[in-house]
Structure formats: C-alpha cells, structure tokens
Amino acid sequence: MDKGIDNNLFKYDSCGLDYIYLRNGVVKKETKYGSAVSIHNIESLHRCIGLEIVKNRPQLSGAEMRFLRKEMDLSQVDLAGLLGVSESTVRNWENDRNKNNTVSAEILLRSIYLEHVDGDGTIRESIERIAELNRVEWTIGKIEFEENDGGWHTKAA
Hints:
This protein has helices at 42-56, 62-71, 76-83, 87-94, 103-118, 122-133, and strands spanning 10-11, 21-22, 26-31, 34-39, 145-148, 151-154. It is α+β, with helices and mostly antiparallel strands. The protein has a domain at 60-133: 434 Repressor (Amino-terminal Domain), CATH 1.10.260. A two-stranded antiparallel sheet has the order 1-2. It has a two-stranded antiparallel sheet with strand order 3-4. The radius of gyration is 22 Å and the shape is elongated.
C-alpha cells in the first residue's frame, strides 16, 4: 500500500489507472481458486471515474485516454477517425510515447465522453459527419443561399 494511503482502501488498478482507491463497495472473499474481489455497481463506478477525469484532470495521461476510449467502447481506429488522427497516433498517446496530445484532441475526447455519459448523441454525430467530410474528395463549387420569411437557407439543388 502507498505511504499516506488508508489501509482500509482498496487499490483499484485493474481499471488501468494506478491512482484509484475505493473506500467501500468492495467484497473480498476466498475461493477454492484463491482470493477474489467483487466491486458493487462497477458501471456506476467507471462512470464516476470517467467524469472525474474529464472534468478535473488538467492534461490527460495515456492511461486516462485509454480508459475513456474503452468506456465508450471505441477501438483505437474508431477514436482516431473521430479525432482526425491516425491509429498509431492514438496508440502512441495511450502508451505515453507521444506527450504532444493536441489540446483540440483532448477537448474533443472529453466532449465525446461527456456526451456519451449524459448527452443525446448530437456532438458525436456532428464530429462523425465532419470527420467523414474530411475523407471525401472535395471540389469547390457554387453554393447558393436564399432568403425567405424564415431567414437565410441553402438553396435546394
């Protein structure tokens, strides 16, 4: 146990973060296969951990980025697509090989997680749409707008 840590706390490092301690909600028991631990309402615990990370950590570590990605059930490829980076960039971030997490990527990841927990999907849908636009060949063409009683609108083709 770490110095200064209450011996009644359970170090919950199997979540991938080595600084999470649980005061209660943990049942330890011996089985014929050895010691076992059961954590009450683990989904709620992980939600609480994720919210603490996105709202209160000044810069995300690689382990924290991995935790958030896994909580949203995203692969590294999926997250890379949402953030507009390569899979290897996400892998390097998660393994702390590239400390240059861009602020914008962190903001997007935090926003996507917050919406995953409490939102209606509009932020993620918007980000996915923009990411898709960035993968499409684009030629600049004429875009027409027209005004009517409801204000300005894109003119239908």
